Amino acid sequence: MTSSTSGFIFGLIAAWVLWKGLSDMFSRPAFQRVNYRGAPVATSAGLVVTAAVFFAAALIALIEAMGLGRYWPGLAPLVSTSLLAAGFGMLGLLDDLAVDEGSSGYRGHVKALMKGRLTAGSLKMLAGPAVAIVVVQPTADGSVLKLLLHGAIVALAANLANLFDRAPGRVTKVSTLALGVLTVATAVPYLSHGPRLLPGLAGAFTMLGAAWGLLRAELNEELMLGDAGANPLGAAIGLAVVFTQSLGVRIGVLVLLLIMNLISERVSFTKVIRSVPPLRMLDDLGRPRFE
Questions:
Q1: HSE of 228, CA atoms in CB hemisphere, 13 A
Q2: How many H helices and E strands in the chain?
Q3: Based on the number of CB atoms within 10 Å of its own CB, is 50 exposed (0-12), middle (13-18) or buried (19 or more)?
Q4: In this predicted structure, what is the pLDDT of residue 194?
Q5: How many CB atoms sit inside 10 A of residue 5's CB?
Q6: CA dihedral in degrees (8, 10, 15, 18; nearest 10)?
Q7: How are the residues of the chain apportioned to helix, strand and coil, as percentages rounded to the nearest 5?
Q8: Per-residue pLDDT averaged across 250-258, rounded?
Q9: Domain boundaries in the chain?
Q10: Under 8 Å between Cβ of 207 and 233
């Protein structure tokens, strides 16, 4: 079993168990929000995803330290992903609970800053890249340009994931597709060495597994991942790009992420998804019909 596969399974089980134990806590007023249908739902359940990733990392570290299992090459990327999730999860939680009125998107947050007002969203816009830079620092090899490149990939991926968190299960589905593409891009050059995945994907797969552990409850509108879950999920995939791809691919991904983030200021991803039948079908997959 590869690091990515076992990480996915550990994350899924940990998140499912944690949600069973914490669902009552998320029913308290502080976590209650109204969803797109006007129904009450628990927000910031993405905190469970981050907690699950930490539990998975701790368990794997203990198993390896006690010599109870084989060497797990994905542990270092998983630890980095855990720290990244904690940072973005904290910023996302603040944004979820603050509910800034009249400030959304890059333009809204920049306007607030220009007026001398620091909103939760503008704090995330400033502190998110800082968190990303701290976590990717070991990958930069002392290069300022690499540090900025890697930090930008992670920060923009985190924000882009949040832009897809507008319907139950959507950000998990989009993240699954994105990580699937990344897996193929990572594995194909190594097929001559056997059908294996590079350890650099392990952190993102563990994070995705944790999101899948909550997917059924999310599709049933029992919870929303919120910024506290969407931001860490996107950041984890961005970090996997940094860990596994060549410099040329990393630059290409940065350009794509930048374009997508800028487009979002003018184009509603929800309108695009709902207007394209195959995308709409995928978006509705697994969601019950509410009268």
A1: 21
A2: 13, 2
A3: buried
A4: 44
A5: 14
A6: 180
A7: 75, 0, 25
A8: 98
A9: 3-284
A10: yes
Residue 223's DSSP bridge partners are 42
Return the DSSP state at 30: G
Strand partners, 41: 33
Q: 45 by DSSP, 3-state: which?
A: coil
Residue 197 has a pLDDT of: 52
Choose among 174, 179, 268: nearest CA to 230.
Answer: 174
Tokens 């203990």 correspond to what residue? 62
100: CB partners within 8 A, 6+ apart? 112, 119, 120, 121
SS3 42: strand
> How far out from the chain centre does Cα 276 lie?
24
Q: What is the pLDDT of residues 270-280, one digit of tens each?
A: 999 999 999 99
Does residue 44 come out as left (phi exceeding 0), alpha (psi in the -120 to 50 range) or beta? left
What is the distance between the alpha carbons of residues 23 and 264, in angstroms, rounded to a whole number? 33
Beta bridge pairs of residue 51: none
Mean pLDDT over the full length of the chain: 90
Task: Write down the pTM of the prediction.
Answer: 0.92
Q: Which two tokens stand for residue 111?
A: 């306007």
Indicate if the pLDDT at residue 148 is higher than 80: yes
State how far the alpha carbon of 19 is from the alpha carbons of 203, 243, 249, in Å: 20, 30, 37
261 burial level (CB within 10 Å; 0-12, 13-18, 19+): middle
Q: What is the pLDDT of residues 181-223, one digit of tens each?
A: 999 998 877 665 444 557 899 999 999 999 999 999 999 999 9
Reading the block at residue 95, the tokens are: 């944004």
- Rounded-to-integer distance, Cα 213 and Cα 86, Å: 18
**Tokens 């487009």 found at:** 263
Amino acid at 84: L
